[in-house]
Amino acid sequence: MLSRREFFATSLFVPFAATAQTRKPNIVLLVADDLGFAEIGVQGSKDIPTPHIDSIAKSGVRFSHGYVSCPVCSPTRAGLMTGRYQQRFGHEFNPGPAAEASSNFGLPLTETTIADRLKSLGYATGMVGKWHLGYKPEFHPMRRGFDEFFGFPGGAHSYLDWKDRGREGNPVMRGTTPVEETTYLTEAFAREATAFIDKNKSRPFFLYMPFNAVHAPLEATQKYQDRFANISDTKRRTFASMMSAMDDAIGKILDKLREHKIEEDSLVFFVADNGGPTPQTTSSNVPLRGFKGQVYEGGIHVPFLVQWKRRLPKGVVYDQPVIALDIHPTAVSAAGGVPGANLDGVNLLPFLTGQNKGAPHDALYWRFGAQWAVRKGDWKLLGLGQSAVELYNLGADLSEKNNLAGSEAAKLKELQTTYDAWNAKNVAPKWRTERQGRGLKKKKKA
Ligand code: CA
């Protein structure tokens, strides 16, 4: 019989912190832009095959209640990079294009990024894609923990025009130098990401890959358009083409990990930054209510997957609510580090292996100008500006159709109190643009 000491020395009980015998896992963080809840195969998409994205769920865990901390791009990324609710440090709104951005716009320099943490743990750190966390030099990715950067600084970008004419100050860059990129941008990002893996295959690396796909503008090359000749709606056909290109790019990255025999030791996340803006791009959030820009589920409840073949179960659906803020502490823990004490995110690894059978969060919170929400267990309270609040039981009503605010006064009060306590620790937005924070448009009464 094994002694206690021998038992703990066997592989049956390896803690997640990397030991001398195990390689620290590579960390690959794939982010899709404006991807609706319903647009991947494992969540019900029928018209756009996404075999490579789906393979992450099949090789690992799919979060059925995965959230982001904001229904739009930049604030979600601020939460993702820091593991903290972005309202803690005033990063509540998008900046708008470079020419319109507030002079102080950028992920505040008081904050430590996931790349800073992993770099200090000995990781090679590379970023390929859309930054959207500051245009000025002091906010550049290579000043925020990344050794390398290929991508663009802004929030939206043409896929076919590297200069992104019409949006000043947002060229495709390698490091800090604009480059003339003539390849379809999603393919260029795949080329750069796989080259980063080739270069760093012998050491632990962190690859942050926020695609601009499938954000507008709707642009795709003929190669992808030809795959969807069966779709007659041209908008939908182009969206499908952009999705397919992104899925191909993710396939190339996963293939590259397999080619170097490091897939087993790679922690791979896939998450969307906010819900689909269905009217603009067709990106669907069915069966969720609402769209990008709203705190209804359709704006914040997103595709969210993770695989780590050596450590995590395969083909599992995890139903407790989680949030993209959890990626930072999960990655730092997997890398053998200790997450910062001021984080709002939680290390998910013990929950995913079944060591901890509880819920990672007591409650999740959102604040986006006049809109706000809190989810506690199955209950969600949301505010739409002025005094209107709505209360839903997501366990019975995921589509937020039956507002129970008028009949569940005690639950309403409990959630309001929970939200107010969280919100008391937030700060005022550091910037805002005219279009943001005005709350949901109310339907005019007929
Ligand atoms: Ca987005």
Distance between the termini: 78 Å
Number of strands: 16
Largest sheet composition: 10 strands, mixed
Q: Report the total helices.
A: 12
CATH H-tier superfamily of the largest domain: Alkaline Phosphatase, subunit A
**Helix and strand sequence:** HEHEEHHEEEEHEHHEHHEEEHHEEEEH
Named once each, the bound ligands are: calcium ion
Judging from the principal axes of the Cα atoms, what is the shape?
Answer: globular
Radius of gyration: 21 Å
Name of the CATH first level of the largest domain: Alpha Beta
CATH topology of the largest domain: Alkaline Phosphatase, subunit A
What integer is the average pLDDT? 93
Helical content (DSSP H or I, runs of 4+): 25-40%
Low-confidence segments, given as residue ranges, are 1-15, 437-446
Determine the structural class based on helices, strands and strand pairing.
Answer: alpha/beta
With strands numbered from the N-terminus, the spatial order across the biggest sheet is 7-6-5-4-8-1-9-10-2-11
Strand content: 15-25%
CATH architecture of the largest domain: 3-Layer(aba) Sandwich
Count of structural domains: 2
